[in-house]
Amino acid sequence: MQLSKLLQELDSLLAPHKVKDFSPNGLQVEGKDTVNKIITGVTASQALIDAAIEKNADAILVHHGYFWKGEAYPITGMKKRRIGALIKNDISLIGYHLPIDVHPTLGNNAKLAELLDIDYEAGLDPFSEPSIAVKGRLKTPLSAEELAAKIEHVLNRKPLVESVRGKKIETIAWCTGGGQGYIDLAASQGIDAYLTGEASEQTIHSAREQNIDFFAAGHHATERYGVKAVGEYLAEQFGLDVEFIDIDNPV
Q: Which family does it belong to (predicted)?
């Protein structure tokens, strides 16, 4: 498949023009014109690049790419080594951040809901379309302890839990990755629990003082599934050789 055609298909699928993001979405480092083998992964780390080189990949598709707002401009040190390896081996780096979070069927939020048996209802933020955080209901109400056990079993990651309500959880809001700041919006809507990847110091106080159960299940662990699903879509639709590689990260 031509690289230009692949990028057109990804832009059509993920609609990056609909979200205001913190990094460029699409092609970040250009490699060869023809793409047959794609490696997908959460973050464009050196370990993922090395794995792609070993597997003779033509392109890498990630959720966390390069050139973030506020990032230093010079290409030195770690950044030089990463980008240098991509250029030397003629491998394209393609990154989609928020578009992979919010896609209604292939996105991180959607796939996490599937895994944890959550029914999506609506976006959490009524003034943002698409909303980065979303809300819905557990298919089966669970106690905080039961939901924590389910998260640990499904994601293979023991979550940080602040259980404050002492009641079954029915309604839940969630945002994969570093979405802890949305807990206050969830609490203001009377939602029983909020689930994300990370926690900040103030998040626990928000949970306690606003009577909302809180779960932090890992930034990496909650965001493995969107980019993997996009890769599987590309393989099914276009016959590309796509392989997801999970470079584990405890955060």
A: Belongs to the GTP cyclohydrolase I type 2/NIF3 family.
